[in-house]
Specification:
With 537 residues, this protein is α/β, with parallel strands linked by helices. It has helices spanning 2-16, 24-34, 47-63, 178-187, 199-202, 206-215, 236-243, 250-258, 327-345, 368-375, 413-422, 443-448, 469-480, 496-513, 528-534; strands at residues 66-67, 75-85, 90-95, 98-102, 108-111, 118-127, 133-134, 139-140, 151-155, 192-196, 219-220, 230-234, 265-291, 302-308, 313-318, 321-324, 354-360, 384-389, 401-403, 426-428, 453-455, 457-458. The longest helix is centred in the middle third of the chain and has 19 residues, at 327-345.
């Protein structure tokens, strides 16, 4: 028995010992390059984006991973249309014969989704609360109202709740995401949709929304479907002028929208807009590489690692700086992806299942690259056992806990608990459930395809720091650096947390790759039907 235990121990060392291959020093080198000014903010369809993908592909090739892209390359072509709104965009509201003009970027922002150089609209408006149709929660903001050809005005987010059985309580569901609002407005026949922005309801400031209006409109070429003439946002000050037409304030409108039994209400307002766009076909790409498993049957199944390589490219100057470097978001995740691949490929004996490492494009434009890969994967969704996603890591050192939002929704949860115990990490609860972070990163695209998917994040208790340290630095980053040129690499960064989380992700993926049972979503989960469909031969 002692000999058997000794053999098992040696096997475990052989299997997981390669985690030591993952070092903060190596991660640092990748982050420093990917976030450098040379790459010009890694915008999709730009020289900087091409440089970033060439670098990632070269790293995978040097490590000996197999190419998983098109025609024997590491690149999966992702055809997009770039649609950049011009500053000459106009929006006005007419009330009782009096017209109010709104100022581009200061008062409103947004894009047309019609994929043409000029979109116009001139239509009546309807206030539709949160713009949600959710029969399972007995909630329909569009009930009894016809919005065809009209402009719908609404709030992002969803009705507040403490009841986990009603819109999942504090946790934001997909119904609360701005992407859903536009999708539902289009499905209901609206010509345009204006989201009223407030920082508490959105979870971020107006400066982030302004970024949406710069280059958020990248859409895939092959969709071939209608789009909103305008998918836009109004800031609170401007929206107050619209609310006043009903004798209300924005806060009072929000209270109305939050109330059960809310009924959509016509606004005595006619919106008129002209949205000129710079349209261009874009050639961008995902980087896909893989390592084959050793089991004759198991190697046809895969663990999928992902991180998005793109950021916002060159944009409006802030303090004289026009390069939106995206160091935290997401040079960090890409660097970790490379180093996890290094550890995996150096294993003396590979696990049962294969492993895919993909750096996806256009996450900042609405998860476009991940959506594309999910529809045209290297391994089908039904053969992909899990997606582990890596997006935005803070350089403040190791933590005592870890964020794994969404893992508890899958049958992999016992395995996740086992690995957290091995790493002596507590699991951090979602500290901002109202922001719906699960629906804001690439794993969501894979989840929609049925793949059990979640992101791995550093925790909130930083080793050697006060309890409130992580909250303080997160607020600092979110308010000053998120989607700004100031998201830059610094030499004084502590890479210990990234090393820790990459080792964790590698070990978790490796453990799953050796399990015999195919994973799925827990009973009742919103993604379980898609998983069942994916598993049908």
């Amino acid at each position: 028995m002692r000999r058997i235990c000794s053999v098992l121990a040696l096997a475990s060392i052989s299997l997981f010992g390669q985690a030591d291959e993952i070092t903060g020093a190596r991660i640092r080198a990748h982050v420093k390059f990917l976030a450098s000014d040379l790459l010009e903010g890694r915008g999709p369809g730009t020289r900087g984006g091409d440089l970033a993908t060439e670098y990632l592909a070269s790293q995978f090739a040097l490590l000996g991973l197999k190419p998983g892209g098109d025609n024997g390359t590491y690149f999966q072509r992702v055809p997009l249309i770039g649609a950049e709104p011009k500053p000459s965009s106009t929006l006005s509201a007419t009330v009782n014969g009096k017209t109010v003009d709104f100022k581009w970027m200061d008062d409103f922002t947004g894009v047309t989704r019609e994929q043409q150089e000029m979109s116009t609209f001139d239509a009546e408006a309807v206030f539709v609360g949160h713009g949600i149709t959710a029969p399972e929660y007995n909630w329909d903001d569009y009930k009894g109202v016809d919005v065809k050809g009209k402009v719908v005005v609404l709030f992002t987010n969803e009705p507040p709740s403490e009841d986990p059985g009603f819109f999942k309580g504090k946790a934001l569901t997909y119904y609360g995401r701005w992407t859903y609002k536009y999708e539902q407005a289009l499905a209901k026949g609206a010509i345009a949709c204006l989201i009223i922005h407030t920082t508490p309801s959105a979870g971020y400031g107006w400066q982030v929304v302004q970024g949406f209006g710069r280059e958020d409109s990248q859409v895939e070429l092959d969709r071939g479907q209608a789009g909103l003439a305008f998918a836009g946002w109004l800031n609170k000050k401007s929206a107050d002028r619209i609310a006043a037409t009903l004798g209300k304030s924005v806060d009072e409108l929000l209270k109305m929208a939050d109330t059960p039994g809310f009924k959509a209400q016509g606004l005595p307002v006619r919106f008129k807009g002209a949205i000129p766009m710079k349209i261009r076909k874009m050639e961008t790409r995902n980087v896909v590489a893989w390592i084959e498993g050793v089991d004759p049957k198991g190697k046809s199944e895969a663990v999928l690692y992902s991180a998005h390589w793109d950021h916002l490219g060159i944009g409006p100057a802030v303090n004289g700086d026009t390069v939106y470097n995206g160091a935290v978001d997401n040079a960090t995740g890409c660097a970790m992806l490379i180093e996890m691949a290094r550890a995996w490929v150096s294993l003396p004996r590979k696990p049962r299942r294969s492993a895919v490492f993909t750096a996806v494009t256009a996450e900042e434009a609405g998860l476009r690259g991940a959506d594309y890969y999910a529809r045209k994967p290297l391994f089908p969704a039904g053969k992909t056992v899990v997606n582990l996603n890596f997006d935005s890591f803070f350089p403040f050192g190791k933590t005592k806990d870890i964020g794994l939002n969404g893992a508890e929704r899958t049958t992999l949860w016992p395995t996740v608990l086992e690995i957290t115990r091995r790493f002596q990490l507590a699991i951090e609860p979602d500290r901002r459930p109202e922001q719906g972070l699960y629906y804001r990163s690439d794993h969501f695209s894979f989840a929609k395809a049925g793949i059990p998917a979640f992101s791995i994040h550093g925790g909130n208790q930083v080793v050697g720091k006060p309890d409130d340290f992580a909250d303080t630095v997160f607020f600092e980053y979110n308010s000053k650096n998120y989607h700004q040129p100031s998201d830059q690499y610094n030499e004084d960064w502590d890479m210990g947390g990234m090393e820790q989380m990459a080792r964790f992700g590698y070990t978790l993926g490796l453990t799953i790759a050796n399990q015999a049972v195919m994973s799925t979503w827990n009973p009742g989960d919103e993604f379980l039907p898609a998983r069942k469909r994916s598993l049908v031969p």
